[in-house]
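Predict structure. Input: D,D-heptose 1,7-bisphosphate phosphatase, 173 residues.
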Amino acid sequence: MKKCIFLDRDGVLNTDTKYYTYLPEDVVLIDGVAVALKRLKEAGYLLIVITNQAGIAKKEYGPAEVRAVHELLQHMSGTVLDDLYFSSHHPEHSSRSLRRKPDSLMIEKAIAKHGIDPTQSWMIGDKISDVQAGRKAGVRTIFTGKKGAGEDFGDFQAQDLREAADFILRNQC
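Output follows.
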């Protein structure tokens, strides 16, 4: 079975300063991301993006824009990303879905498709919903976001993907 790093997109791979990042000209790779991804890939991890894209449900953009941003991130990061899963749902603008984080269906589908061992895998995200989705899927979690009182911050907290990658690589099974 394979090991995997599941990655939230906005705020982990690229800056999350816009209302929604769906235009190529708004994509800015966070410092150190390309190097961190390369190191994880060289250590044998699959790299799979797991992202909520509520802007689709709100009719602000479509799946083609999500895929275009993914292709740009793929290019900017050295073509190391193995797959993309995104939820186009939002509870206030479309039907509820188990695909949308904090539920774990996107991760579970990736585990089944790619033959991933959850016990050797991680979910890295900057939202509590990322941690919750990872936990539901049985993978370890790393939180890179801002901390609030009384919230669950995952198995480890890191400033960014670079620090998360350092931690994972030092603590491999």
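Residues 87 and 100 are 5 Å apart (CA to CA).
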